[in-house]
Amino acid sequence: MSVYCPECGTENPEGAKRCSVCNADLSYRASMPKYSWDKAVADTNDYSTDRSWFRSYLVESILMTLCCCLPMGIVGIVLSSQAETSFKVMDYERADRKASAARRAVIWGLVLAFVGFLVIYVGGFIED
Questions:
Q1: pTM above 0.70, yes or no
Q2: Exposure string (b/e) for 92-106, b if CB count within 10 Å is 16 or more?
Q3: 49: which of 34, 39, 114, 120 is 20 to 30 A away, CA to CA?
Q4: Dihedral, CA atoms, 113, 114, 116, 121, nearest 10 degrees?
Q5: DSSP secondary structure letters along the chain
Q6: CA 119 to CA 101: how far, in whole Å?
């Protein structure tokens, strides 16, 4: 089993006292619970390679900007970009919040576009 450095994340051999790259102290392992840094690093590495569960709504926001509602589409693009950035730096909580906000922006954009088209359509009949 390997030991991961808490400073740089480098894999070191079991029983190492210092990191082979940054010379950080690896004695932290003696005081850590069973769910250790090694497990946390392995978990985050699994998440960073598996993007199947994450959706930032960037494509939907771009389509919203091009087709229906420019202001809400731009808001969606900004929020989607922030979600992507948060995901890349492994801040999954923030990424999820930003992606949810981008989703809401897309939904509100669709609602506003529908209402706008409805007003224009009904307004055309009223003038006739």
A1: no
A2: eeebbebbebbbebb
A3: 34
A4: 140
A5: --EE-TTT--EE-TT-SB-TTT--B-GGGGGS-SS-HHHHHHHHHHHHH--TT----HHHHHHHHHHT-HHHHHHHHHHHHHHHHHHHTT-HHHHHHHHHHHHHHHHHHHHHHHHHHHHHHHHHHHH-
A6: 27
Residue 112 CA to residue 115 CA, distance in Å, equals: 5
Environment class of residue 73 by beta-carbon count within 10 Å: exposed (0-12), middle (13-18) or buried (19+)? buried
**Contact call for residues 115 and 72 (beta carbons, < 8 A):** no
Residues in the chain, overall count: 128
pLDDT digits (tens, 9 = 90+) for 65-112: 998 888 899 999 999 999 998 888 878 888 899 999 999 999 999 999
Helix, strand, coil tally for the chain in percent (to 5): 65, 5, 30
